[in-house]
# Entry
Amino acid sequence: MSDERLHTNLLGIAMQTPVLTASGTFGFGEEFADFVDLSRLGGVMVKGTTLLPRRGNDGVRITETPKGMLNCIGLENPGVEHFLKETLPRIQQYGMNTIVNISGSTAEDYGKLAGLLDVPGVAAIELNVSCPNVKEGGIVFGTDPEAASAVVRAAKAHTKKPVILKLSPNVTDIVAMAKAVEAAGADAVSLINTLLGMEIDIHR
# Structure
């Protein structure tokens, strides 16, 4: 039974609790269905999704350290078409808010992905801007305000879903980044992974 005191609304999405799972740490949600009632979560930010399937990085991807764990998965995923045809219909049975994390090599990639995912069953889009911008000589979207803003504008032009921009910690002025993507139309920002979790700042 849900506790009504925890009910909240984020970007127009009714949530049982303000707690969401972070992208990349929880797969597509279904992997944990035996351990938690997914419908009681605020939402699940599913594994990073790209236009085409990605096999991920070679070699050792995960290793333990005395203080935690390091990983370099490489955005392994089956691609957006597989997600839409196979994964999304399957995970809808759990009654969870599905927020799809997307990655691309160009702003146009993000726009295409956002458009393809503008479908029932997807509650919102989270933009992962830690990937190289191939067209601009390898600039990382998440460290350049103009590049990050271009990604936001491309996504917003192709979807009516709320758009969340996941900021990178690898910048000298994260406030400037946040203000730039807000001005470009981002509905919220995910404020970097920390030792304890994540925080979402709502702009609208």
